[in-house]
From TrEMBL:
<dbReference type="Pfam" id="PF01235">
    <property type="entry name" value="Na_Ala_symp"/>
</dbReference>
<protein>
    <submittedName>
        <fullName>AGCS family alanine or glycine:cation symporter</fullName>
    </submittedName>
</protein>
<feature type="transmembrane region" description="Helical">
    <location>
        <begin position="475"/>
        <end position="494"/>
    </location>
</feature>
<keyword id="KW-0813">Transport</keyword>
<feature type="transmembrane region" description="Helical">
    <location>
        <begin position="190"/>
        <end position="210"/>
    </location>
</feature>
<keyword id="KW-0472">Membrane</keyword>
<feature type="transmembrane region" description="Helical">
    <location>
        <begin position="230"/>
        <end position="253"/>
    </location>
</feature>
<feature type="transmembrane region" description="Helical">
    <location>
        <begin position="50"/>
        <end position="71"/>
    </location>
</feature>
<feature type="transmembrane region" description="Helical">
    <location>
        <begin position="451"/>
        <end position="469"/>
    </location>
</feature>
<keyword id="KW-0812">Transmembrane</keyword>
<comment type="similarity">
    <text>Belongs to the alanine or glycine:cation symporter (AGCS) (TC 2.A.25) family.</text>
</comment>
<feature type="transmembrane region" description="Helical">
    <location>
        <begin position="265"/>
        <end position="285"/>
    </location>
</feature>
<dbReference type="InterPro" id="IPR001463">
    <property type="entry name" value="Na/Ala_symport"/>
</dbReference>
<keyword id="KW-1133">Transmembrane helix</keyword>
<feature type="transmembrane region" description="Helical">
    <location>
        <begin position="407"/>
        <end position="430"/>
    </location>
</feature>
<keyword id="KW-1003">Cell membrane</keyword>
<keyword id="KW-0769">Symport</keyword>
Length: 515
């Protein structure tokens, strides 16, 4: 997920650009504050205070887990078989393979937040936050199963073979089907239009501008900051143009091109990052048992900077919810393009996504920080405990790597760039599907959107637009309010699809035994 520390001001430090940025932020600030104030408002239950949106996401994940009989555990091996091509046919409708759909969706959730956000979570919530982060990720696997099954079930397959899916489609068509009266159709249309608008705005701002901004910031910092060659006037503009050209070259080919690129990029960047984590962990292998002990005991004791075991729980749940996007419905857009005749097969594949994003990558980051035991982390915890500001999450993670590999900040920068580019590419597709839902699907409409998207890549590199990005984060999570209501109402549809698929597998096994 792209949520992470506030973006930094780059080339807009004064002059005309600064004036433009200030004017836009002044317009968006009151709107952003109002929406964010609602979406991220905190509630207190039994003396525990937390953002209601986090509770909304985690409770839904727990309910779906119970309703579908812990499908994320029982169906894990089935999911792996489907990703490898089992139960698929070359003539299945769709555009991309199960593996490409998974890699495309993962590229939209795995981002700077997995590196920076986890650093902040472990610092504030202590090592115990990792335990609750893992638990929330495991629960979120079932939510992804539900929404991505629905994404394929109610997708539109166009005459040219392209596919459109996502919450705007299953909310509109699914609710109309489940509740044939006029009310179901009307409510579905309203929710679908709202979902499309939220996805479009976040795609352009959070999934594009923010990533471009943070990528240039990281590159500039690692090359000497304002005194380095990327600190010169116009460097951000040049970088933005180059990045826009790279993104444009990929997205012009649609989801097939995006699937091919992310199918190579996501495994590469994940392997690169996980190898770095493993290097630090192996170098501190004698500290691993103690680190694991800290994670488990810290989840249930009162040593958390955030306020004991409950503080660790809330921080862990929040990091997981903000990381894997389970419950937002956004990933179902990519999963909907899969080649399949059985919607639930992609539900199985989708449940692997939070496992990769949260259980593997976020946990590897957390374990790396805990075993490294840097002085920076200890000082940061002391500062937060004393009421000071929270640390820069990227720095927490980077310092942990530097204890073993002093040159690793350069590798981390490469990982950040790969994460950011893959996120931009995937969210360009999400935004395009929202755009065509709202404004119609045609070659001209798609071309206009792609040009606008690439222009905002350049804008994001040059301007910060903090209020715009804060607003984007808020509207994306507002999507969860509508999406999960739809998931509750449509869960019986998913259960029916699951039952039919299990019957298909049983018949297939019996035929094989007879043969």
């Amino acid at each position: 997920m792209t949520t992470s520390p506030p973006p930094v001001t780059l080339a807009a430090e004064g002059g005309a650009l600064s004036s433009v940025e200030e004017a836009i932020n002044n317009v968006f600030t009151p709107v952003s504050d109002a929406v964010a104030g609602f979406v991220f408002a905190e509630i207190t239950v039994f003396g525990v205070t937390f953002p209601w949106i986090v509770g909304w996401l985690v409770i839904a994940a727990a309910i779906f887990t119970a309703y579908f009989g812990v499908i994320q555990v029982r169906g894990f091996t089935t999911a792996l078989r489907i990703v490898r091509g089992r139960h698929s046919s070359p003539d299945d409708p769709g555009e991309i393979t199960h593996f490409q759909a998974l890699s495309s969706a993962v590229s939209g959730t795995v981002g700077l937040g997995n590196i920076a956000g986890v650093g902040v979570a472990v610092t504030i919530g202590g090592a115990g936050a990792t335990f609750w982060m893992i638990l929330a990720g495991l629960l979120g696997m079932c939510t992804k199963f539900v929404e991505c099954t629905l994404g394929v079930k109610y997708r539109d397959v166009h005459p040219d073979g392209t596919v459109s899916g996502g919450p705007m489609h299953y909310l509109r068509k699914g609710l109309a089907e489940r509740f044939p009266g006029g009310a179901g159709k009307a409510v579905g249309k309203v929710l679908a239009a709202g979902a499309a608008a939220m996805i479009l705005f976040f795609g352009i701002a959070g999934g594009n501008m923010f990533q471009a901004n943070q990528t240039f910031a990281q590159l500039r910092n690692v090359t000497g900051g304002e005194e380095g060659f990327l600190g010169t006037d116009g460097a951000a503009l040049v970088f933005g143009i180059v990045l826009a050209l790279v993104v444009g070259a990929v997205i012009i080919g649609g989801i097939k091109s995006i699937g091919r690129v992310t199918g190579k990029l996501v495994p590469a960047m994940a392997i690169l990052y996980v190898l770095g984590c493993l290097t630090v962990i192996l170098f501190n292998v004698t500290a691993v048992p103690d680190a694991i002990g800290q994670i488990f005991t810290g989840a249930f004791n009162a040593d958390s900077v955030a306020g004991g075991a409950i503080g660790a729980l809330i921080v862990g749940f929040q990091r997981a919810a903000f990381s894997n996007e389970a419950g937002l419905g956004s990933a179902s857009i990519a999963h909907s393009a899969v080649k399949t005749r059985r919607p639930v097969t992609e539900g199985y594949v989708a449940l692997l996504e939070p496992f990769i994003d949260t259980v593997v990558i976020c946990t590897m980051t957390a374990l790396t920080i805990v075993v490294a035991q840097t002085q920076f982390w200890k000082d940061a915890q002391a500062t937060v405990f004393a009421g000071g500001p929270r640390p820069d999450g990227v720095t927490v993670t980077s310092e942990s790597f530097a204890t073993v590999l002093p040159w690793f900040p350069y590798v981390l920068t490469l990982a950040v760039v790969l994460f950011a580019v893959s996120t931009i590419i995937t969210w360009s597709y999400y935004g395009e599907k929202a755009w065509t839902y709202l404004f119609g699907k045609s070659k001209r409409s798609e071309a206009v959107y792609r040009v606008i998207f690439c222009l905002f890549t350049v804008v994001g590199s040059v301007l910060t637009l903090g209020s715009v990005l804060d607003f984007a984060d808020a509207v994306l999570f507002l999507l969860a309010l509508f999406n999960i209501v739809g998931l509750y109402l449509l869960a019986p549809v998913v259960k029916r699809e699951l039952k039919e698929f299990k019957e298909y597998l049983r018949t297939k096994r019996e035929d094989a035994e007879v043969g």
